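Continuing the batch. This is chain 6 of the set; chains 1 through 5 are on the previous pages. Same settings as before, nothing changed between runs. Recording input and output for traceability.
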Amino acid sequence: MHGRRLATTERIIALLSPSAEEPLESLEEWASKRDIEVAAVTLDEDVEDVYDPGPSTLGLTVGGDGTFLEGIKRFTPRGIPQLGVNAGTLSFLAQVEVDDMLSALDEVLRGRATVDSRQMLEVDTNGLDATGINDVMIENVPPENPFDRKVTRLDVFADGEYIGQYEGNGIAVSTPTGSTGISLSAGGPVHLPADNHTLQIIPLNTHSLGVRPLVVAADTEIEVVAREQASLLVDGGRAQKMLAGDSVVRVTGASERAHVVQTSYDEQFMTAMASKLGWGLRDESDGPRELLSTERSSPDPTTDATTTAERARQVACEAAESAGEPLRELHGRVEDVTFKTDKSDIVTEADQQANRIITTVIENEFPDHGILSEEAEYREGSSSYTWVVDPLDGTGNFAHGNPQYSVSIGLLDGEEPVMGVVYVPETDELFHAVAGGDAYQGDTPITTTDREELAESMLLSGWDPNGDFLTHFYGETRGVRALGSAALSLCYLASGSADGSWEYGTYPWDVAAGIVIARAAGARITDRHGDPYELAFDDDGRNEILCSNGPLHPALLAHLQESEELVGTD
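Output for chain 6:
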């Protein structure tokens, strides 16, 4: 989950420890000024008893690590990101202090928080099926008679391969998040938990010096056979089971991952380790505090056009990827039998959700810029810059379950496109460029092809009402393809997947971003007469566009002029 998406938060579910009455009062006062719903949930109340969480819901835990873990248990299955506020003592998980809670939430609403993906684990044995975020402990059970056996034997396998026998107090299977608990106490390594998808097996007081902690991939199936009676605890007892001799326990990484919200008010992980465990690795005056203070302040506005466009590119990339998340989620529903009768509603919801995320991010970061979106009224700005947004280019494709749709975000200086970002949610392709610079797909520079002959070329067609372009060019080339997304056509031209493209009529939001990307990659863009292409801002709102790799353009223009029957001719 992308942190920019949190800028559209509409409701907060607050899971509170018994001593959190005062923070709740300040939270409710803060939320009421921002038209955000707040529901307080007690530890014995289910989230859905309050209301059905939607995509604009933030989970908030106020308490210690126990409250945080309980929040993970309730919020993760519902896909709700969680921010932890520390109202306890020795907390390693909830790292925003109560005094910083409202400032951290302000940062969340400005879209400047990040969201860490935390590995969870699944445990399955006879009579128990549980999920945890910290660890699974399988330990010996103290005997009633002090002279009886005080250790347990565990045979451990990883994906069917025999690791060995652990004889002693037992083992812990830990996630990176849980590496600071029992794992750390037993001599296991500390793992940085953010976006770390591994599991580790840690011996608990074994009788063999050769036994060491073992790190495995998250999808490894760990099988533990308890040769004697043993106790099984998940996340410190949130699920537990007494195991009989020869019981088999299976542990693997969970398919669901927890989404933990991080702000600049969170204590940095290693700083927390040093201060709370007394490691003495660093001095309080070392760098992290100074860095955090700069992160909390808004970027300084600038009048330099290049700097503005570069900063806009970064914001647009983040906004596009954030908007892609709900589009992917809803795209998977359009062909589901359950939702087919509501397909138009799903498409409308997709448009609106994506548009709201993008425009909210822009408004937060560039409050003086105008915004022209296909899905909303024009917002006039006080500067020369205007954002041109199509939150879902390729609506028809989207509505039929076709993956060829995109998010298009462009920036104009006056009427000149100066920055473009196009994101393809289903393939995770991100195209971007700033005018005067290079074009990129992700981190890789892209350029157009150098073909000059129609017979060697592949063309793309956009809106071609009567099929005239297809008819006139298909036999002269290696084919004409219609993608159904003008933004994608321009990006695929830029990346060399096609040599030319035509569309009878385009709106500014269809092509503003793609034009910057294609030009930066070496493309030539005109109308059918070879005159410079201009975005259409009049009442008609549509202009024809002819694009090529550059060398092919004369042949395209000549072949267009040969046919008086082509749609768009005088």
